[in-house]
Input
Amino acid sequence: MEEGVTNELLSGPMRDVFDTKQFITGQSGSGNNWACGSHHYGPMYRDTLLEAVRRQAEDADSLQSFLLLHSLGGGTGSGLGSYMLGALADEYPDVYRFSVSVFPSEDDDVVTSPYNAMLSCAALAEHADCVMPVENQALMDIVTSIQSKSLGSQRGSSLSGLDSGDVGGRAGHGGKPWDGMNGIAANLLLNLTAGMRFDGSLNVDINEITTNLVPFPKLHFLLSSMSPVAMSADRGRNIPAPRTMDQIFTEVFGRDRQLASVDPRRSTYLACALMLRGGVNISDANRNVERLRRGLKMAHWVSDGFKVGLCDRAPVGTPYSALCLANNCAMQRPLDAMNERFGKLRKRNVYLHHYTEYMDLADIDGAAECIQDLGAEYGRLDIARVPDTVPSIEPLGIR
Output
């Protein structure tokens, strides 16, 4: 929305990537207020936004899905993003809606982010078909870990040790290396859409993710992890040797590769997808799935709940890579943390008057209740046990 942000993009090194006709700007943003973005700017720009979407949708040979990239901590990405999800659900009800959402960290510098994140997450539960949360703190931890392990590398190589790739980037506001963090999120999108862009012996259509990984309608929050987490930016320099296939598989199930601050191995897997790129054959993939399955806690109704996809084209600079998408009950933790941060502000009613200018207080509390119920449902499934008896259905017919 803010022209200053788009002008910076258009004057940067990637200015030729963007179609300026698709840029929609206003005089100001939403002031870190979800309600302003959703209830004020959303209706104001609805026709303009949907016209921009329509132009692209009509040019598509086969419209697969909508992919929304936004942050939940501010006002425009959260509020206007939530409004757009609802508008797309109304205008294109048969097209899947995916969201890659940046969850704010606990030390976020936007004081109203607990309100914004809670309201956005409730909208994601209602209108999105699949959500892949990315936490700023998790990205920061990954970048810090890579940088610390690269200190012993030879001068001239931007990275060695944990991963090959330049994730340091320039430090932005608050001293955080935003370029490196954004690069990791970008690699998530590249791996996610590789099956649509390149050939493969067992490609996974992006819409198959929803079919295979979402057992219950609102439990569509998928944890994501990758190996390697960054791609090579040191072509022609001294970079570490490629990992083995077994290392790749082991790493994507580890805590330090998660793009959310959780440990999925301690919780129940409701379903899991492995999207592999490069010189991987199905026998190696199946062998590693069987090897790792024994150490994972799977839901009792889906012991074989793995979806494997193979794309022939490897990322630049590495022979193969893996993206793991898991519908895991560990998602309860970030939802509960979000609810806790919201409760601290709501209990004192601080900053609430900025929101009640645009929406009813009951809607704010309703969103909090929705997320609380969502976290409780993940918790219930995490401790669910195999029933003693499985009820059978007597076939109908003439007796």
